[in-house]
Amino acid sequence: MRGFSQLTARCAGLWVLAAAPAWAQQQEEVWLDTRSAAPMMSQMVLKQGWPHLVTLQGTFNVWGNNIVPGPQSGQPEPAPMFPSPGVTNRNVGFDPEFVFAGVKPPATAPLRASSIQLSLDGGKTWAHPASTADFNAAEHKYGYEVTGGESALQVRIADKPVTDNSGRLKIVVVPAEELWLNTRSAAPVPSKQVLQKGKPYRVTMQGTFNVWGNNIVPGPQSGQPEPAPMFPSPGVTNRNVGFDPEFVFAGVKPPAAAPLRASSVQVSLDGGKTWKHPASTADFNAAEHKYTYDLTGEDAPLQVRFADAPVNDNSGLVRILVLPGA
């Protein structure tokens, strides 16, 4: 490409998305019985730095008696959503994120509090994952986005004793789908997963690239290029770079100054009928060149393209991760 004005003006040319291996589409189901103090472990190893969606669902009781209802303490449900086998299951007032019955004054139900803990580092550390979700009285289901630590997921209930508990939790682990975009290619490829209509998804883009046929000249206003792409294009000479998925950080033409929010990365959620760059208010990320976008599915695979022509003078790959929203 000959100049930045062409980058913003032209809408031809596409990036190739190399589809992720089949395992990225798989999910694993794990069950935790609140009557057991033993951690439950996934068979899946959560790859280092890789985002996963962990969904916890169910109701339970951690007391040795039925919960008494009250206008402030909350209304228990008559039995666990998923009963513990082989025992008498009592009424319930707990789910993975809230106490919704049996709350002690002066607090009121539903109260955000949980004894369910996760470990992502082989059991060295344990914590309940952060959430801002509202109380889900209908499904008692909550999603948590976690980052893998090259270990299996472990889940436990932090309660003593556990022998008077009743109720199980269903845990579903979903890894993000990975796509690699080579800026030198012009063929669109969809994600393997279909983004369901009305459902939230989080798409993360990371990488740096050059869309010009020459090295970028640094300048105090035009910006400082980096010496090479974060993820180099294979089989070619990679030049210095001044672009990431959200900003031009080097090679900006006056009177503008770097970093300049501008991107030719476009996504389609409706089977290629419409295309646009997803909205973002993120600041320039000079350290990681990584940005996350919240999208809503339209019953079609995600498609991504790059509005630039020609593409054969570009260099650099962009990594894309697609994950159901928490």
From TrEMBL:
InterPro entries listed in its UniProt record: Sialidase_sf
Signal peptide location: 1-24
Keyword match Signal: yes
Keyword annotations from UniProtKB, A to Z: Signal
Protein name per the record: Uncharacterized protein
Native source species: Myxococcus virescens
Upper taxonomic lineage: Bacteria, Pseudomonadati, Myxococcota, Myxococcia, Myxococcales
